[in-house]
User: Fold this.
Amino acid sequence: MKKRNFNKWLTTFRNSIADYGYYVDFEKVHKNVEKVKIELNILNSLIGSKDIENDFISLIEKYPKVLECIPILLAVRTTEIYAMDNEGAFIYDFKNRTLSINQIKIFMIKTGLFDLIENRIVSNLVDYVTGIETGLDSNGRKNRGGHLIENLVENFIQQAGFIKGESYFKEMYIHQITQKWGIDLSCISNQGKSEKRFDFVVETTDMIYGIETNFYDHGGSKLNETARSYKTLALETNKIDGFTFVWITDGNGWVKARNNLEETFDIMQHIYNINDLETGIITEVFK
Assistant:
């Protein structure tokens, strides 16, 4: 393979690989809302109340399970909420129902939830919580982003004719590689004291390939650490017969971390991006 130009290679990096399901997992959102839908609809009866404190107390005395949906009204998933002010600190446990009526009332007043309900700031708590769950789910984009690049790479591996469980394997640990193929990977496992996992392992006639994948659409210190660690991993695996380390990465987050990436690029033969996948690098390398 001819020597590649790093600067030219970097220009082919992508801004994003987001698909339509990346932004919000609405199936998960609706599932979470469904769990508290009955309780939220009961609370809906208090919207516009002229005597919110007494009406709320009467309601929870009759339907105590309603308390369990209070935290999500504040975009909190746990059932315990810690709060403090100049009058002191308190842990509100909405699941065990050990709170006194007065404590619950203080919580609802000081957090603004009574105001939210009484003054019709929202007209339907089911819709309101759907919005909250949608916002909270956006925090899951980081995990979904990691799966996006994995799914993308796996698709190209399959297109190249490799079969899952036969000629390629997903999420494989060092000890599993050693057990299956008898390859000594102790130099990258600190003599068995650390357990690294490769995103994919591909088996060909003459070689076992351990593949790491990632995509960074934003910069940060993690990218420099990743580039340095993979540079070390590449140098160490070069000494292992029958095993080759492959790194597939992309994302314009690398533009600001280009120096460390270039250092790794200069010493690592098998470092590729999505553009390389699209131009057939898997069938070219994994023979």
